[in-house]
């Protein structure tokens, strides 16, 4: 075991998969010589050469589309979108092509592509370096979507994504890159796609979410237990599509009080679907309305510090909402 | 001045390395595709099928391109008018009819997609969609795989001149040019994007754009199959030699309306269409073969009868074939059998 940052875990996953399987390769803007604008692919070109760590022209639809073509041939491309904010030119390739290739060919062709994209704000990135675009792709059957919260999951989920025979969008949180440091095994392991993870057992309230905001929830839960004797049951969705319905329903039943948290804005966000699943399956076991704490319904996050702070979730905001739910 | 009754036809295919048998074969595919197309239109008009999108007027160039490729190894990314192309690389009229009738056994999509959305792993025809030009980056991806795996194949992709305006065309061409990939990018310029004529689609020539991507662009008469054969063959040789992509603009004319849902005389004249029928590549190639003594009226009648018989059998088979089971709608969303679609 080694202590490593979330970003190191992602890099290690790519390195290990490229060592394991010669058909795995990385492509994207600045991924080669520079090693990525965040250093996510640092050292990979040195180890694997220019062809397998391919610096591409600045054109996201080609990055996705070429990766899709190579994947249909049988390669295992990991395509990097520099920021998830810039992946929209590739949405036609992702939604009309990657997601539908197996289905439209009646299982004749498949598309084992991984598309990595950093999400989230809190880095003074302004409107176009801070977005969470999960909800744009969510609800597109044929795509798998993962969004790891921990370094351990980031490595295991990325390795699982590379080995998956279907297209996987890998939304890594850029604020977590350096913030999250923990023990990660250096050897081979995967985290199964499609399985949520219970982060914490509790009996008073349930928090369901994914990615960065769960760190706020975990810190808040510790404080609430210490200060108020409130225990929180916290479920990390990990995979956003397909959602782990059984885990969601079980977590909701556990306490009868549910708070859903995510940084993507509330309307049309994944929390709406989670709430609907709970309402469909265990509405009468709830003791409170379902709460959602999300990014505000504004187009994107402003750069000005007080505005960014207003937009972002925080331990304080999550804690206040958890307490309000517990006291409901 | 005395006029001659016959003009002597010069054998042009021999110097291209094509045997008499091969050019006759090419003609057979052209005519089969033409007959297939005409029959599909009739089936739609008779209410037997819902939709047909035609490739009439483009068969000669399509067949020629296929014959210039390695039909055992190359990868093909055709567009929706490429019936003559897919027939030439091994798809059968039965398989096309199964698609037209949207039956379970359709190898293209199991009855899921509209006709003209080809796909067959067996034939290395890569599954396609309706949003145009998305297949061009895919072709570049196949070519990238060939380069990385050091495999001796090329990818061949087609699309219309309207589609050449999509960003995916430019992004893919540039990517292929930067990496010198073994891909042949062929625009079938049939003069119309549904109702919009080429002069409202294009400020210049499609083939000229290649200059900006750093590889050759060639404009060729798409009604002249021997010329199309020659340029595709040369493009393939360049690709295999590591010299990179070639952009080909094959000039054609869409003799049919856009689809069975279109009335083309609302935006073009009958005179214009009639004038282009005179340039029909299939008839032109027939005359070429007749001129060389390689083809006769009798052989023509036999071939038409043969095509009709084959199509009749294909239609009967497809018409009687079972539809997909309704609940099979939920299959093949993901590979995992437990991850079916549905709520």
The profile of the biggest β sheet of chain A is: 7 strands, mixed
Broad structural category of chain A = alpha/beta
Q: What is the H/E string of chain A?
A: EHEHEHEHHEHEHEHEEEHEEHEHEHH
Number of strands of chain A: 14
How many domains would you count in the coordinates of chain B?
Answer: 1
Strand arrangement in the largest pleated sheet of chain A = 3-2-4-5-7-6-12
Order of helices and strands of chain B: HHEHHHEHEEEHHEHEHHH
CATH class call of chain B = Alpha Beta
What is the CATH superfamily of chain B?
Thiamin diphosphate (ThDP)-binding fold, Pyr/PP domains
Mean pLDDT of chain A: 98
User: Which residues of chain B sit in consecutive blocks of at least 5 with pLDDT less than 50?
Assistant: none
Tally of helical runs of chain A = 13
DSSP strand content of chain B: 5-15%
Cα-to-Cα separation, first versus last residue of chain A: 43 Å
Largest interface, counted by CB within 8 Å of the partner chain's CB: A-B, 45 and 48 residues
How many DSSP-defined strands of chain B?
7
For the termini of chain B, the CA-CA separation is 82 Å
If strands are numbered along the chain, what order do they take across the biggest sheet of chain B?
A: 1-2-3-7-6
What is the CATH homologous superfamily assignment of the largest domain in chain A? Thiamin diphosphate (ThDP)-binding fold, Pyr/PP domains
**Structural category of chain B:** alpha/beta
């Amino acid at each position: 075991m080694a202590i490593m940052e979330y970003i190191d875990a992602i890099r290690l996953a790519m390195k290990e998969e490229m060592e394991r399987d010669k058909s795995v390769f990385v492509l994207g803007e600045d991924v080669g010589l520079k090693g990525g604008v965040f250093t996510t692919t640092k050292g990979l070109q040195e180890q694997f050469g220019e062809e397998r760590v391919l610096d591409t022209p600045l054109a996201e639809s080609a990055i996705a589309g070429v990766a899709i073509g190579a994947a249909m041939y049988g390669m295992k491309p990991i395509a990097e979108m520099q920021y998830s904010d810039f992946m929209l030119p590739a949405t036609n390739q992702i939604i009309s092509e990657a997601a539908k290739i197996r289905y439209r060919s009646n299982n004749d062709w498949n598309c084992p592509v991984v598309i990595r994209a950093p999400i989230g704000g809190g880095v003074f990135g302004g409107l176009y370096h801070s977005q969470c675009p999960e909800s744009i792709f969510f609800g597109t059957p044929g795509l798998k979507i993962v969004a790891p919260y921990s370094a351990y999951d980031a490595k295991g989920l990325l390795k699982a994504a590379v080995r998956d025979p279907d297209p996987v969008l890998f939304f890594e949180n850029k604020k977590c890159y350096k913030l999250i440091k923990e023990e990660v095994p250096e050897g081979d392991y995967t985290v199964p796609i499609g399985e949520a993870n219970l982060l914490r057992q509790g009996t008073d309230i349930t928090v369901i979410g994914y990615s960065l905001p769960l760190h706020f929830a975990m810190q808040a839960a510790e404080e609430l237990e210490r200060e108020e004797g409130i225990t929180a049951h916290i479920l990390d969705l990990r995979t956003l599509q397909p959602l782990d319905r059984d885990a969601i329903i079980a977590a909701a039943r556990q306490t009868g009080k549910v708070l859903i948290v995510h940084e993507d804005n509330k309307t049309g966000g994944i929390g709406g679907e989670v709430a609907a699943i709970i309402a469909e399956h265990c509405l009468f076991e709830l003791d409170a309305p379902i709460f959602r704490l999300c990014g505000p319904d504004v187009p994107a996050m402003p750069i000005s510090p007080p505005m960014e702070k207003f937009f972002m979730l925080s331990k304080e905001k999550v804690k206040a909402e958890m307490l309000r739910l517990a006291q409901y | 001045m005395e006029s001659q009754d016959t003009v002597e036809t010069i054998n042009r295919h021999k110097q291209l390395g094509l045997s008499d048998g091969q050019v006759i074969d090419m003609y057979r595919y052209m005519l089969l595709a033409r007959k297939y197309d005409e029959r599909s239109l009739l089936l739609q008009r008779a209410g037997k099928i819902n939709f047909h999108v035609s490739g009439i007027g483009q068969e000669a160039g399509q067949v020629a391109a296929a014959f210039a490729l390695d039909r055992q190894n190359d990868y093909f990314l055709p567009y929706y008018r490429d019936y003559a192309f897919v027939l030439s690389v091994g798809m059968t009229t039965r398989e096309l009819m199964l698609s037209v009738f949207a039956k379970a056994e359709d190898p293209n999509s199991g009855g899921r997609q509209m006709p003209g959305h080809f796909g067959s792993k067996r034939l290395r025809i890569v599954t396609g969609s309706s949003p145009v030009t998305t297949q061009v980056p895919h072709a570049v991806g196949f070519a990238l795989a060939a380069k990385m795996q050091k495999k001796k194949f090329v990818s061949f992709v087609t699309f219309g001149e309207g589609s050449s305006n999509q960003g995916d065309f430019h992004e893919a061409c540039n990517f292929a040019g930067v990496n010198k990939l073994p891909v042949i990018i062929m625009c079938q310029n049939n003069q119309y994007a549904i109702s919009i004529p080429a002069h409202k689609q294009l400020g210049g020539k499609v083939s000229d754009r290649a200059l900006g991507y750093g590889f050759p662009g060639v404009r060729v008469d798409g009604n002249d199959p021997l010329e199309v054969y020659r340029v595709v063959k040369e493009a393939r040789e360049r690709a295999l030699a590591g010299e990179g992509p070639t952009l080909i603009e094959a000039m054609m004319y869409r003799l049919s309306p856009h689809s069975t849902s279109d009335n083309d005389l609302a935006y073009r004249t009958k005179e214009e269409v009639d004038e282009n029928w005179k340039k029909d590549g299939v008839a032109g190639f027939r005359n070429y073969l007749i001129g060389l003594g390689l083809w006769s009226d009798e052989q023509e009648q036999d071939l038409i009868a043969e095509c009709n018989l084959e199509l009749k059998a294909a239609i009967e088979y497809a018409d009687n074939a079972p539809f997909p089971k309704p609940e099979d709608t939920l299959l093949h969303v993901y590979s995992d059998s437990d991850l079916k679609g549905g709520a």
